[in-house]
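Homework help thread (please don't just give me the answer)

Our assignment gives two proteins as sequence + structure token strings and asks us to describe the second one. The first is just a warm-up. Here they are:
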Amino acid sequence: MEYKYQIVLTGTITSATTEITELFYKKLEELQLLSNAYKTINASDFDKEYKGNQPTFVLYFGNSEGNFEDANLVEKLLKDGNIVLPIFYNSFREEIPPILSNQNGLQYSNDKNDTIVNLILESFGKLRNSRKVFISYKRDESTSVAIQLYEALEKYNFDVFLDTHSIKPGEPFQDELWHRMTDCDVIVILNTPKFLESNWCKEEIAEANVKQIGVVQLIWPNHILERIAEVCFPINLNENNFINKVYNNKDTSKLTNETVSSIVQQVESVRARNLASRQDNLITEFLNIARTYGKGMNIQPERFITEKLDNKKRRIFIPTVGIPQSIDCDPSSALMKEIDDFSVNEVYLIYDDIRIKEKWLNHLDYLNNHLDVKTIKKQKFDEWLQNH
């Protein structure tokens, strides 16, 4: 039986359904994932196409007239233990069937398509469940906008790092800052006129380049785009993007709601797009060193590395973006299926350990002595591959 990831489309199908589906397959291409490993299933094809033992994400599209289509189908999908995301337009209570009343729904708008697609990819283990953003800014120029973006991104369930809000008193400031940047998905730079006069800001940009972290650069009015990051997505602001056209007061300047929504959408998009390049960096470096020792390794379509061993077993190496957590050592059910198919007896997470706090590295070393899934530091790739 062919093994696939399933997206089941239920409820009242509209143009929004088509837009989300098209964006999903576009994201697969950006992440360099094979599209034929995924399939979308409509209610009309459900009995023929749906497989209960395969990873599934269900979208339920509400109906403003209260016509709860596919309610029986959703009941079966819930009993199978599947994730169901109710999508409503105005009123959750009126548009979503009672059987989904305990589910956390999402109110639809065009700028939510990225969010919906990323939720699907996260559920399949193709994006990190944590959604981490780092805001880089100059305090004496853009504090009020930095706080505004912090609050807006938190509202959309991002874990946001802002120095004034995220570092506890008594924490080593610089160590904590580098540690948190290492683990973020996107950096939002508030490029004000004197931004690059700050040594702290320059160092943060240098770190972003080293880590190949995607940067959303907000360029202030009457300022220019700085060529400050390898992976950069610029947004040119003008005075109309600011409430009352006030953009040069660090304490009172605020972006309009429309501008904030646009920035949040861009952050969501860059987050998914940047994952592939950071995985590629880990994969490329690991494979280059492995080849110097004559090891036969291959990249699989789902972006992990396999190595054949003499005893007809295989090792699997999984590129892990950011800081590995203990939960990362428990592979998803989909990956476990792939591991079973390969008769694998060793699984490793490979990660970039530069700038991660020593305390956390020691914790990961401790987990290596107690869990079946091990971790390998980037700075130890050569040593590990030479000895294994």
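The one we have to describe:
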Amino acid sequence: MTTPFSFSLHKTDGQARTGEITTSRGTIRTPAFMPVGTAGTVKAVQMRDVKATGADIILGNTYHLMLRPTAERVAKLGGLHRFSTWDGPILTDSGGFQVMSLAQMRKLTEKGVEFRSHIDGSKHMLTPERSIEIQCLLGADIQMQLDECPPFPITEEASLESLELSIRWARRSKQAFEEMAGPHQALYGIVQGSVFEDQRKRSAEALQEIGFPGYSVGGLAVGEGREQMFKVLDFTTPVLPTDKPRYLMGVGKPLDLVGAVERGIDMFDCVLPTRSGRHGQAWTWDGPINVKNAQFIEDESPLDPESDCPASRDYTKAYLNHLFRAGEYLGPMLLSWHNLDFYQKLMAAMRAAIAEGRFAQFAADFRARHREKS
């Protein structure tokens, strides 16, 4: 018998929340950060090491996997969990953001988005129904409705038109999900509306009328800046159900995560930990550092001597500096592993602070210590 999807809220501290999402493939402790496995792999890090960092769930990408190796092939080979060797929960996005940002020659209609692949120029059509079909073929435990992610800045009129299309697509996505998915899987609706308060409220209310077991906040971290993003969350999370998980898509830096948790967000994903790692940037409790800098050439200290992560504890900054200067693959691998581990330790620290009723002090202390400079 498969375990149905459910969410339990354990403790609140101000707007910050901690709880658990139950799936048939395991429990997700919230607030949760999902490492991004775009093409069926978390870049430069083995799945066993991702698991060792404390990650409960990873993210896969519909757009990339539908193009290569194709969702049908992944299904034939046993599904994304077996294919990638990740046995925990997987969330897949709808592919909508990548179609808007990566694909070529896009044509948006009521039916969906017609586009050409950025890989080989082949022609494809992504509709709400096809997006759900792909996510079901992949075997995703948590799926996303197809939506349009509008650019920023955008006019109120254009944003509203996009928002209404996403609401109509949400209805079609849910209908397709009910026809194709298993009882253990879940579909999230995506709140849009750019930076406009009335539109965010309109989107949230419409999605709740349709009914979803979880709600995502989309259309942020697209250039509006941290202050504006927090302002949007300030008026968006209060109109979302308290008994359903809230997912802020594509965010972000550690200070973004802390500020969003303060505003009631439960789930996050972002490519930043591994992208930073590939470019020599290590995230630490005191902020990011660039190990390629000359100041670390003879620095014999590790990134975090108290960490239980080998990448953080066992290698000196001097050695990491050497790896990057020498162009050795091991450098990006170690920093990506370290960054993923740091992000999971940050989430664990926030969960503990909320549970113990000291989150406001934790957030203040973190902001005072953490400096975003390289």
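TA reply:
I won't write it for you, but here's a hint about the kind of observation we're looking for: The first helix runs from residue 47 to 52.
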